[in-house]
């Protein structure tokens, strides 16, 4: 009887195991997303405004969904990357994407690298500039010698550790939180002065839309060593995307429960910010957990840095090869990684350890380019170059139009705010 039950359970276990092995690109996307947008923007939103921005965070994730989903859906249907799709639309579309991607790559690499270096200051008494160089060198070594396979395995473990740690911290905060003696009167985020912050928060929520092309290329890379069906690819993407959306609210909850109403605000200094963030966790998990939290937070941001360098480099390498009609199997991925990292380091030196101003600059830049990247993906997923059965249906088309209207409206509002503030 027992053997029969065991045998009947094996197909289910096998299916789960196969599904888990097929995951990867979506989890990598989540690792890239859960960096500045979550640890910084979501936590800061909760700390400064309580729960008021929770609905906005969810809304941003919903309206951006069709543009992110394009990466997994297009590649699963055609076995080609989004960049090949842009090229089929016309050479100008691929040139536009690649040009904007160069700017985004340098800025994003600098932002996540400085945040990683800031976390590292809690363990190593060196300047952020020196630590940023160490972070970049370590990331490049891992990518050049470990390749995609190591990145895939490492990211799953780190994501699981960070997710569990954050969920435990928030659960303890809900259990212990009793306010600060008097009801907190939250300042409204719906003021003209906070337009810049709102746009910055939405720029990397859950991530820059060009990450959809990374998901596309990672899926192609995954398929080189393993069979991944279209159904599995879409499940993997949805799993990663839903995880990032839910964790954004979890990070906001941590800031709202522990820091909101305390009178404390996050510092612009990278080293001080890192200390504040770790203290936020240790307040509810105990001081003895401080180093454990610091290590988990560092590994999370480090994995973000690695995936950002890898993702941008892959898209730029593929974009330039397609534009130059280079059919040689030789890849210039390593050279592209080195170039992006070097220029990112120069940007870090320019901001001189001021973490929040750098991240705000990067997030705003991401939001302003998001409109174009979103339009490119929408155009591709509704074009005649894609088989009709794989194009977006009415629901996705409708959600896409709502998303584009939303993104364009806020972009216009920000431009007006910036020149009149």
Automatic annotation (TrEMBL):
Keywords: Membrane, Transmembrane, Transmembrane helix. The chain crosses the membrane at residues 20-41, 53-72, 93-117, 123-145, 157-174, 194-218, 239-259, 291-312, 332-351, 357-378, 399-419. This is Putative manganese transporter.
């Amino acid at each position: 009887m027992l053997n029969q039950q065991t045998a009947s359970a094996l197909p289910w276990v096998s299916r789960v195991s196969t599904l888990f092995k097929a995951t990867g690109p979506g989890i990598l996307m989540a690792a890239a997303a859960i960096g500045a947008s979550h640890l910084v923007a979501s936590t800061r939103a909760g700390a400064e405004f309580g729960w008021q921005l929770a609905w906005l965070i969810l809304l941003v994730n919903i309206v951006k969904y069709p543009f992110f989903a394009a990466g997994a859906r297009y590649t699963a249907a055609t076995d080609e990357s989004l960049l090949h799709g842009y090229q089929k639309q016309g050479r100008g579309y691929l040139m536009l994407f690649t040009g904007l991607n160069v700017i985004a790559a340098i800025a994003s690499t600098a932002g996540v690298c400085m945040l990683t270096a800031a976390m590292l200051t809690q363990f190593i008494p060196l300047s952020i500039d020196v630590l940023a160089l160490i972070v970049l060198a370590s990331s490049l070594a891992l990518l050049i010698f470990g390749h995609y396979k190591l990145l895939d395995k490492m990211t799953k473990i780190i994501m699981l550790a960070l997710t569990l740690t954050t969920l435990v911290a928030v659960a303890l905060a809900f259990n212990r939180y009793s306010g600060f003696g008097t009801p907190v009167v939250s300042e409204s985020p719906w003021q003209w002065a906070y337009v810049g912050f709102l746009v910055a928060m939405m720029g990397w929520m859950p991530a820059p839309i060009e990450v959809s092309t990374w998901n596309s290329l990672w899926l192609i890379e995954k398929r080189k060593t393993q069979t991944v069906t279209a159904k599995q690819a879409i499940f993997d993407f949805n799993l990663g995307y839903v995880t990032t959306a839910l964790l954004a609210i979890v990070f906001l909850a941590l800031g709202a429960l522990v820091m909101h109403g305390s009178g404390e605000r996050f510092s612009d200094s990278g080293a001080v910010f890192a200390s504040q963030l770790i203290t936020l966790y240790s307040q509810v998990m105990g001081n003895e957990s401080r180093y454990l939290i610091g290590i988990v937070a560092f590994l999370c941001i480090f994995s973000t840095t690695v995936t950002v360098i890898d993702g941008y480099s892959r898209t730029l390498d593929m974009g330039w090869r397609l534009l130059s009609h280079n059919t040689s199997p030789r890849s210039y991925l390593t050279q592209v990684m080195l170039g992006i990292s070097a220029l990112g380091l120069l940007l870090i030196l320019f901001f001189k350890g001021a973490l929040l101003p750098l991240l705000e600059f990067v997030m705003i830049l991401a939001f302003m380019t998001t409109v174009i990247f979103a339009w490119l993906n929408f155009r591709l997923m509704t074009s005649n170059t894609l088989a009709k059965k794989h194009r977006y249906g009415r629901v996705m088309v409708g959600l896409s139009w709502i998303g584009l209207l939303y993104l364009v409206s806020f972009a216009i509002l920000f431009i007006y705010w910036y020149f009149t503030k």
